[in-house]
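Lab notebook, bench 4. Still working through the backlog of constructs that have no structural model yet. Next entry is a single chain of 608 residues. Request: give me the structure tokens for it.
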Amino acid sequence: MTDGTPFNSEAFLKNLSSKPGVYRMYNARDEVIYVGKAKNLKKRVSSYFRKNVDSVKTQSLVTHIAKMDVTVVSSETEAFLLENNFIKKYRPRYNVVLRDDKSYPFIFLSEHKHPKLGFHRGTKKLKGTYFGPYPSAWAVRESLRSMQRIFPIRQCDDSYYRARSRPCLQYQMKRCSAPCVEGYVTEDEYSEQVNLATLFLKGKNNEVIGTLVGKMEKASEALNFEAAARYRDQISALKRVQEQQFVTGEQEEMDVFGYAFRNGLACVQGLFIRDGQLLGSKSFFPKIPKGIDADSTFQSFILQFYLAGNKTIPKQIVLPLKFEEFEEVEKVLSVEAGHRVRFYTGVRDEKRQYLQLANKNADNALETQQNQQKSMFARFVDLEKLIERDTPIQRMECFDISHTSGQQTVASCVVFNRDGPLKADYRTFNIEGITPGDDYAAMAQALRRRYKKPSEEAKIPDILFIDGGKGQLSQAEAHFEDWPSEFKPTLIGVAKGTSRKPGLETLILSGSYETIPIESDSPGLHLIQHIRDESHRFAISGHRNRRQKVKKTSTLEGIPGVGPKKRQALLKYSGGLQGLKKASKQEISKVPGISDDLADIIYDYLHS
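Model written out:
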């Protein structure tokens, strides 16, 4: 069955170019459903419309094509890059899509007078040295915490550093040498620690330990036992960290990918090795349309992973298989990286050990994912029995309200499908214009903003859970009262028991307000608790972010004539708001862009 008027493939192919390029297929709703590339556009696109097509995926795809367009390019490399950009932009239904295409974080060592160690993600605009990439923000922060215990280098923000008049708590805990205040550490001593930290981040642990041992022995010979004890403690801490780095080797820069593909699901496990150390690993679960084979899925993953931007492409990449366009992809990544990139499949020795580790982890992660999906399916089936629903539940949403004494009220909307949380569709609503603390009015406003009118595009859920009793549920009933029945979701209130303990919840059905008590070990109840707890967590998170934003809102924002650039300059040159409050009118007027008259206004505003 087609989406509309059948696509006239003969007319389209008649004038199609034989040059390399990228083609896009659209359905009747003008949505891009597939993006592909070709060395020869006419030959490749013609293959979709043959009488005998074996691929189930291609058969399904062709029935949904309403129109096509193409972009001719000058080379196959350009076609690879453009295809990846289109997949990232449109996320087509029939393409393999990598859900996680974020840039990876780094540890950043700045080029200040007293360099700072910190977390960095994004473009490398700041001057300094970047170490990584690390597989996750957690891995970076764990490394920074370890380094704080070994090397007393500052990790504070520049504004905090400039505003100090005495050492902070980090100095008291022996995790910083207080370069912000004179007299606590010399320039040479601080530079020495920075150099040792740099060597450590480059994986030269033994060199660092050797240097520290030499300094400890010299300090002992000079009878400087206090300094010797500090070096001894550094050596002990460094050795403990070295023991935790259980996988080390000789490879300077290399990524290794393991792969598992079963029953239409795939897991790619990446190991990231820099400077002889395994920085960490990460599991990826690309979205795969039906009928795609294992090799095509892996090729699509590699391209999307490295062409997503803000990722370091190493010189060596170890792969678990050799896919169809192996050499072409290798050339594309070499062009993108600006250096020769080599793929390895038939590997030996150290590379083989890494690959075996990656494959094993991919297999374990895929098995865990499949078990979770089976568990999620069982929960959906049990819930359908509980509420006596005849048709399968495809989409559920749940709302919750969070505030502090009625201030900075936030409503959350979380979404589950049959695979579990659908985080891409989560939303928060900042509630305005209501009586503080009126949760009913907050719920009504959130519903109005989420469900504006009945339509297919609105993604109306099959079930809408409201975290609360009859009062909250009545707000949802009032909102959907005039909607056509085919668009109305099933409304269910989730009321906590008298003791508010998990397992004592009851369901309240809209209309009759009939309550359905549920057994505490029911899989359906576990699903309800999961979506309810997720909505609660997301609402609290949204509320905290809003509250924090209010706290961070500069006092300067209320001053007439002081815009974002002037606020930034004032805070930068005074070392923060507290430093600005201590400044005189004359000192304020010395800030670039601040006139004498404006300095008077700022001073009076801050001290009124």
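Notes after review: The longest helix spans residues 349-386. The first strand starts at residue 21 and ends at 26. Flag for follow-up if needed.
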